[in-house]
Input
Amino acid sequence: MPATRFDSAYHAPVLVAEVLEALRLQPGARRMLDGTLGGGGHSLALLEAGADVTGLDRDPEAIAAARARLAPFESEGRFRAIESNFADLDKIRELDGVAFDGIVLDLGVSSHQFDDESRGFSFREGAVLDMRMWADERRQATDDRGQTAAEMLNTADEEELKTIFKEFGDEPKGGRLAREIVRRRGNRPFVTSDDFVGAIRAVLGPRSGPGDFARLFQALRIAVNGELDALTRALPALRDRLAPAGVIAVIAYHSGEDRIVKHAFREWSRSCVCPPKQIVCNCRGRPLGELLTRKAVNATSEETARNPRARSAHLRAWRKDSSAASVTRTA
Output
């Protein structure tokens, strides 16, 4: 089946065949959680493979787009969409105590979010510096709107900005960029993408280009939405919601995200997690499951040619022990 079969105007999902392979349905395994619903591409693939799917997304625009696309499955009772963040799974009343045979996360922003200049994720000329995941109408209707990218650039101290650019953006000149931003905002606040691009060019030089802008805009977006902290907090909770022999598959686009997933999956697959110099083992004493991907799975050349955003995608998968309880509270 052509990979474009699962694309929509909202989003083109990556590594669909690879996700299906990782989450291959076992006899009796039907309950799937799509923690990053987006345009519903991965959900559609799972539904057509015979699964029942619950989709989560904190963006009401994504929920609306996916529900419209997957309406026939929703009417059959095989699909439901819930507006929530996958990091808050344990707070969703409808899913209290529900275990899943498979979970998929496609981290980052959707094609629609990136292309919509009003959302402020891109470095296109004149784009607002927003970058919050929630859509405008939801932000306006809540007191907990969060800080925009512009507000972060205009208020964060130099050390915090340095950390963002160095740790989230792998930028060696992160300290200099932080100083330049503090200097510039003293004369005029940051408002649009042009302001941030101007600061980047002033530090990295005239040869800096789209690759540098994309990397540093991504770093700022990750900081605005607290994405790495949310992922670190969410992974154990998602693991606990897997049924015995259930699989979690995560697609990451950022080195920090991929590192968090890799380390979590490896730690869960070890029988002993005691400190190296500890003489007597007093930890769980058994692996919680099995690593299915020794190395990250990347998109094929054909997929990256069709969808350039797939170039940085890294898929990792892990399977829970078949004898484990549906909820495993051991760390």
